[in-house]
Design goal:
35 residues; mainly alpha; Glucan 1,6-alpha-glucosidase
Length: 35
């Protein structure tokens, strides 16, 4: 049993959607790492 609860939005948040959206948090961090 995990000691941290899952995010309540876990069904709506996925990698496939993040990669399809250039404004997602994935791409935001990707740009920050490049700096």
């Amino acid at each position: 049993q995990p000691w941290l609860a899952a995010n309540p939005d876990y069904e709506m948040i996925d990698v496939q959607e993040a990669l399809a959206n250039p404004d997602s948090i994935f791409y935001t961090y990707h740009k920050l790492v490049q700096i």
